[in-house]
Amino acid sequence: MNFSVDPQGQIVVVSTEVEKLDASNAPELKAHFLQLNKVGTNYIVLDMSKTKYCDSSGLSAVLIANRLCKDTNGKFALSGLQPNVLKLIEIAQLDKVLTIGNSTDAALDLIAR
Question: Residue 41's CB: how many other CB atoms inside 10 A?
Fold first, then answer.
């Protein structure tokens, strides 16, 4: 399994279990986000602490989750970004759009506000 889903009350933590988030597994992640949205979950933390590489397909999945949450008055946050993934997000200037916590607990706190 490439991703795990851990409900923590009103917030769901989705964790990547892959070293590379790319075109081979990003559709599966998008499917998780769409399913969560379908059942009314709109507070999501994506823990990427195990992911060292992310391409445009992976970023697309992240942005879809962010949009789904915002469109339903929820919140989305990233946590555990590895240096290469954080650099990609900063180059794309998505650090200004996305909520980013250093740890899952920090991201949970940011969403709970």
Answer: 20
